[in-house]
Amino acid sequence: MIHYRLIVCIAAFLFVACTDKKNSSETSKKSSSPAEIIKPELQDIVDSANMVGSILVYDPTNAIYYSNDFERSKKGFLPASTFKIVNSIIGLETKVVENDSTLFRWDGEKRRLKIWEQDLMLYEAFKVSCVPCYQEIARKIGIKRMKEYLERFDYGSMVVDSASIDNFWLQGNSRISQLQQIDFLQRLYNSQLPISERTEKIIKHIMLSEETPVYKISGKTGWAVREGNNIGWWVGYLETKGNVCFFATNVEPKPGSDMEKFPELRKQVTTSALKKLGII
């Protein structure tokens, strides 16, 4: 009888212990999820620029996402020229481009932007967002390697085949959300991508867009036109005295907007948001 009671007590103890461990694990998992905080003042910034869209900022130190519209920030859009970050990385990893000084020669054909009508090094092609230069990189990478690296990087949902190898990030069904953009940037920043240290160093160098005594901003803009709608991106990260935050802005101009100002407004609303949040 005593032996039987002992077995029952042990079984009860193990059940309670396992249940507590499971509950503790689930609680820990829930508490480790980043918080999402709506900031109405970010919506004011977007409205004042005569645009619709969302600004997403992630503070990894405090595990907090800030946005004016989390629903949009989780919706997929064409990556447009933000894909030049990934395209550069794959080009470097596959040796399609040797370094940031690799030269792309202009063939003399008229291009959409006058600034593209010249020989450009990779560093320059990234800065002026030269589409023909990066189409050349994509074609040389090829379908097989492009798909392999995109899967390895877990980069959004890219749809690429032989017919779209040099434009799948500009048109078609490829999609990435602001949340996914930030996830990718975090892995790049924290050296968690399966790439060489050399490639990482080069891409971080060409991504640097602004440096002051107080902060550094690295990133890439993008502009896609889909079904008559203009979608503007600015994604990247900001470093300040040992801290870093990540951002992804996705906006559209309202009807009647001055489209000549749209390229710069993508960056201006983001900078205003970072200031409003007290990050810079």
Write up this protein:
With 280 residues, the chain is an alpha+beta fold. It has one domain (35-276): DD-peptidase/beta-lactamase superfamily (Beta-lactamase, 3-Layer(aba) Sandwich). It has helices at residues 2-31, 40-48, 70-73, 84-93, 122-127, 131-153, 178-189, 197-207, 262-276, and strands at 35-38, 51-59, 64-67, 103-104, 120-121, 208-211, 216-226, 229-240, 243-253. Helix 2 runs antiparallel to helix 9 (262-276), helix 4 (84-93) packs across helix 6 and helix 4 runs antiparallel to helix 8. It starts with a helix and ends with a helix.
Main CATH class: Alpha Beta
- Straight-line N-to-C gap: 72 Å
Number of helices: 9
CATH superfamily descriptor? DD-peptidase/beta-lactamase superfamily
CATH topology: Beta-lactamase
Lateral strand order in the biggest sheet: 1-3-2-9-8-7-6
How large is the radius of gyration? 23 Å
Element string (H = helix, E = strand): HEHEEHHEEHHHHEEEEH
Summarize the topology.
Elements: H1 2-31, E1 35-38, H2 40-48, E2 51-59, E3 64-67, H3 70-73, H4 84-93, E4 103-104, E5 120-121, H5 122-127, H6 131-153, H7 178-189, H8 197-207, E6 208-211, E7 216-226, E8 229-240, E9 243-253, H9 262-276
Compact summary:
The protein is of the alpha+beta class and 280 residues long.
Keyword list:
single chain, 280 residues, alpha+beta, Beta-lactamase, 7-stranded mixed beta sheet, two-stranded antiparallel sheet, globular
